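Lecture 7 notes: from sequence to structure.
We start with the chain below.
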Amino acid sequence: MQKNLLQLYPEPGQRSTVDGLYLAHRVHTLGTPEAPFVYANFLSSLDGRIALEDASQSTTYIPKHLTTASDFRLFMELHAQSDCLITHGGYMRALNEGRLGNILQIRDKDLAEWRCKNGLKPHPAVVIASSSLDFPMHDSLHDHDQAVYIATGRNADPDRIRYWRDLGYTILIAGEQRMVHGAPLIHQLSGLGYKSVYLIAGPQILDTVVREKQLSRFYLTTTHQLMGGKDFRTLLTGSTLGPEGNLTLEALYYEPDSPPGSGQFFMQFGLERSKQIGNTAGVVK
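Predicted structure tokens for the same chain:
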């Protein structure tokens, strides 16, 4: 296998392959039920676009030329190390409409075997964060016998809470209004015994998890492309961050030949987490 990654930090000059790069981080061993290890992974262009918006259809999409096989492989290596995923209602709607692919399960044989050898269940549990509670449930979650939780705020529509509860889903109350907040959500997952929590939701969830000091590690792939476009999504959505937005570079890799005609960086950052996990939360069975 060709070693096409060049390490630039912390030990410059070493070469490695994409396959196994993030598995070697052993993320699944870094957390405990008392202090889950919470990590996120995003893909961005040089000008900060993670997705573009189609205003005519009120939808967002990821341009195909932004994505690469290497980035997706590393995304799934992080997926393979989680015992719980956090996604959101917008993704569930896009999945149902065929606008996004299914990333709720492990499908690569080697990653499935890796989970088995490392004592993890075949597929992680899934938390769906939603303020509206208006999304379809995907059949694959039931087909793969995954634990599914729905997270929302205390002031969410009681009829929608009742709807999901009557279908047998556990509702996690993780915020005082309608929006899900990072600290109470991670507190809930801690109480459920999860140790490695992978954030695959969008900018709003990332914003609250960072702002409330619940993120342990941040992975970022930056392709060497200027995307442009007037309507776009970027990493965060909220007001200006202070010290809680400070990150420390832990690793930097360079892939020179992907995407074609440019290249990309794979970066790993550490964050200082709060020692206190918020307790404004509740469970509705």
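Points to note: The longest strand covers residues 37-44. Confidence is low (pLDDT under 50) at residues 275-279.
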